[in-house]
Amino acid sequence: MGWQTAQTSEKNVTPRDYFFLSSHKFPQRGSFLEGWEVISTETFYQHGLVAICFVNTDIRHVVIAFQMFDEIQITQDCLDYARDFVKHAKQLAQRLDYKVSYTGKLKGGTVAELCAIQDKLLCYTFDSESIDESKLL
Length: 137
Fold this sequence. Notes:
This protein is of the alpha/beta class. It has helices at about 15-25, 75-95, 105-120, and strands spanning about 30-35, 35-45, 50-55, 60-70, 100-105, 125.
């Protein structure tokens, strides 16, 4: 069985694309996956969060990806930093009239899911961890 598109409204963004976008470690600006370019990346060392904004001009789509250092726990401050990054990435997408979705792996996937739930947008994650919101600091 081959790769399928995520949804009709998100055509051409495959699970394979989301996997590579969620897994690429600390990308620099530029292209590493055909059609996708890193246009913004932020590392919030204190909170162990890496946020990356990928753009595909062919399909007019922005993917916001999150990664986290393994030993760091997700805190409310971490989520606040993620939301701030998302705000700027979504403003870019809105100016360009591009679709937006989220991705992440492990704890980065959890951050992506929390952002996507709040925004009611598509999110494709891999091995995301469950989170007890009552334990967020």
